[in-house]
What does this fold into?
Amino acid sequence: MKVIIDQDKCVASGQCVTSAPDVFDQRDEDGIVVLLAEEPPADLAADVRQAAAVCPALAIQVEES
It folds into this structure.
């Protein structure tokens, strides 16, 4: 699994961080998403998929390997 984020689409809702805090964070100054793990471990796959599903801006893309 590979995770790609589009920071230009991000609306800083924080849903991704709530769903997968080991993979996503937010910049302090504006709340925009920051990717912590481009290729997260398999045990976090369900959390990453959930984060992508709940992102209101559709800023998270998950490529399955």
The chain has two helices and four strands. The mean pLDDT is 97.
